[in-house]
Design a protein that fits this description.
Radius of gyration: 13 Å
Number of helices: 3
Order of helices and strands: EEHEHH
Structural class: alpha+beta
CATH class: Alpha Beta
Strand content: 25-35%
Number of domains: 1
Helix content: 10-25%
Number of strands: 3
Length: 90
């Protein structure tokens, strides 16, 4: 969320064919932003270990929240559980 064009972001581990689980980032852009997946990955490069970089950046309108306002990663994980599995078959 340190990128100027990111309003909110969360990262969850999703099932992966080869690695069992890999990170995927879910990002809400700042209104009017057109930041790309590659720009965000470039922003993270050198800031986090290479194996921590998300395999996929998904842009969404809103991150689901719990009753206390925290990001509800369980909902995100359930909604996108096969995202990285599908990417492996392409």
């Amino acid at each position: 969320m340190a990128h100027a064009q990111v309003a909110e972001a969360t990262v969850v581990g999703l099932k992966h064919v080869k690695w069992q689980e890999r990170p995927a980032a879910f990002v809400v852009r700042v209104e009017g932003s057109d930041v790309t997946e590659q720009e965000l990955l470039d922003h993270l490069d050198g800031r986090v270990a290479d194996w921590w970089l998300p395999d996929k950046v998904v842009f969404i309108d809103e991150i689901p929240k719990t009753g206390t306002g925290k990001f509800d990663k369980k909902v995100v994980r359930d909604q996108y559980s096969d995202l990285l599995m599908e990417a492996q078959t392409l």
